[in-house]
Amino acid sequence: MPNRRPSDGSTVAAFHPLIRGFADAVETGVLLLDAEGRVRYVNPSEAARWGEAAAPLAGRDFFRELAPVLERSGEGARYRAATPSAPVEVDTEAEIAGGSGARTARILLRSVWAEGTAWGVVLLEDRTALAAEQERRRNAERMASIGQLAAGLAHEVNNPLASIRSFAQLLIRDAASDSHRHALELIVAECDRITTVMDRLVSMIRNQGGDSRTRVDLNVAVHDILETQRYALASGGIEVRTDLQEPLSPVAGDPGALQQMVLELVLHAERALAKREGTRLLVIRSRETSRGISLAVYDNGPGVPRDHLSRIFTAGESSAGLGLSVAAGIVRDHFGEIWMESEEGRNTTLVVELPRAGEIQTRAQPRPQVQATGAAPSPQRPLHVLLADDEATLRMALRMYLERRGHRVTTAADAEEAWTLANQQEFDVALVDARMPGDGVRLLERLEELPSLAGRTALMTGDLGRVRERQGVSTGRPALTKPFKMEEMVRLLETLGLGR
Questions:
Q1: What is the mean pLDDT of residues 143-147?
Q2: What is the pTM of this model?
Q3: What is the dihedral angle through the alpha carbons of 420, 423, 425, 428, rounded to the nearest 10 degrees?
Q4: Domain limits, CATH 3.30.450.20, in the chain
C-alpha cells in the first residue's frame, strides 16, 4: 500500500512550484492537507483572513477543527481512508472557523496522490456576504408573506369598523339626548382607536425585512408599542411609567425593526412581571449620552441569576426564548450595544445604546387622503354617485348618509356590476372600494377612461399600503382610509362631482 503519511520536509516538494505560484496569487483560499487531514500549507489570501491566527493554523486538523460539519457528516473519515483508486471529492457549502469568527464558504476538496503520498487540496470560496444576503432575502420574503396576512387582517377589521362608525355618525345626527350623543361619540372614538392600533401593527410588519434606513425617533417607537400593548399591560396589572427625554436626537435605522426591538424588550418585562406578586412596575427611559441614544426598560420582576446573564441574548440558551435574541440581532444590525443589569429577586433593566443618525434624508410616507375639518356645507346641486363596495352594511350606511345630503346613490357589490352600471347610466362621481371581487383598483382605472368620470373617481380602502403597492393612487386619485369621517367623504365627493 502506498505511504499515506508524508514527512514535513516533503510538503513543499510535493506541492509543485507552478501550482504553488498560482495558489499564492489567487484570492480564493487554498489549503494543502496531509493524509491525516492536517493543514500543511495556507495561501496568502486565506492567511490574511486569519490575521495573526494564521501562523498556528499549520498542523491543525481541517476536518475536526476547521470544518467540523464535514467530520460529522463522515467526509473526514472518508478522506483519511482514501486510496488512489477511490479518491475523495467534496463540493459543499458549510460554516468554517476563521480568525475573526465563523464564516460561510463553498468548500471544494479533492484527494490527490503524488509520488505515492496522499494529499488533499482544498479551495475555500468565501460566501459569507452572499449567505447574509440570501438570508436577508429569505427574511424579506417571510415578512412579505406576513405583511400580506396583516393586510388581509386590516381589510377584514377595518371594513366592519367602517360600517359601525358610519352608522354611529348617522345616529349622532338624530340623537335624542346628550347622553345618547355622548355614547355614540364613544363608539366612534373606539373605532378610531382600533384603526390606529391596526395601522401601527401593519406598518410595523411591513417595515420588517426592509433595507431602507431613515431617521427614527425612539420616543415615537416607545409610544407606538405602548399603545399596541396597552390592553395586555393593563390586564396584567402592570403600572407603566415613561421618562423620555424630549427632544431626543434620531437614530438611523429601519423603523419597523426598531419598533420590533422595543416590543421585544417590553414583552420580556411583561413576562417577568407576570411572576411577581404585588405591585408590578415597568419604566421606560430614554436619554442622550456621549455615545448616542440610550433606551432602558426596567421592571421590578424576579430578576435573572448572575450566571444566566452572559447567555441571556442567545436563542435557546435561556428562558427568555427567541425574543431577546431577536432584539439583540436588531441592535447589532444598527451598530449598537445591548446589555442586561439585574438583581436576582428584585429587578431587571435592559439597556440599548444606538448611535445618533448622520446626515440621512428622511423618506416621507404621506397618506394620500383628504383631511376634512368642520361640517360639509350644503351641496350646490344633487349628485348621482356610483358607490361600489362588497360590504352590504357599509354600502347601506354611506348611501343613507349621502341621500340625506340630497344626493342620488346607485350601489354595486363588485367590480363587474359597477362597470356595467357605469356604461348604462350617467354618473357625476364614483367611490370605489380597492379590495372587492373583480379588483377595485382595476375598476377605478377603467372608470377613469370614461369621459363622464375622468378625474371624478376616488378609492376607499381598509389597507392603504396595498393600494400604494398596486400603484392605485399613482395617477393622483384621492383615497379614503376606512373607517373615515362621513364629512370627509362628503367633502371629497362633492369637490370631485361639483368641480365640472
A1: 65
A2: 0.43
A3: 110
A4: 10-126
* Per-residue pLDDT tens digits for 259-308: 888 988 999 899 889 888 889 999 999 999 988 999 999 999 888 887 77
Portions of the chain given CATH number 3.30.565.10: 212-357
Q: Would you tell me the crossing angle of helices 415-424 and 440-448 to the nearest 10 degrees? A: 20
- Whole-angstrom distance, CA of residue 489 vs CA of residue 431: 9
pLDDT-derived band of residue 248, with 50, 70 and 90 as boundaries?
very high
Cell of 389: 363596495
Q: Give the rounded distance of the alpha carbon of 347 from its chain centre.
A: 31
Among residues 313, 193, 204, the alpha carbon closest in space to that of 254 is found at 204
Q: Beta strand pairing status for 29-33 and 479-481?
A: unpaired
State the Cα–Cα distance between residues 210 and 212, nearest whole angstrom: 6
Q: Shortest CA distance to 35 belongs to which of 11, 58, 5?
A: 5
CATH fold for domain 384-497: Rossmann fold (3.40.50)
Q: In degrees rounded to 5, what are phi and psi of residue 10?
A: -85, -5
Cβ count near 73 (within 10 Å): 15
The CATH classification number of 212-357 equals 3.30.565.10
Cell representation of residue 23: 495558489
CB 253 within 8 A of CB 213: yes
From the candidate CATH numbers 3.30.450.20, 1.20.1260.10, 3.10.180.10, 3.20.20.70, the one assigned to the domain spanning 10-126 = 3.30.450.20
Lowest mean pLDDT among 34-38, 299-303, 364-368, 434-438: 364-368
Residue 74: φ, ψ to 5°? 95, -5
Helices 178-207 and 218-228, axial angle in degrees (round to 10): 120
**Residue 373, SS3?**
coil
| pLDDT for the residue 212 | 55
| Intervals of CATH 3.40.50.2300 along the chain | 384-497
Is the pLDDT score of 342 beyond 80?
yes
Flag whether pLDDT at 471 surpasses 50: no
- DSSP code of 86? B
How many C-beta atoms surround the C-beta of residue 175 within 10 A? 14
Q: What's the full length of the chain, in residues?
A: 500
Distance CA 228, CA 264 (A): 13
Cell of 241: 411609567
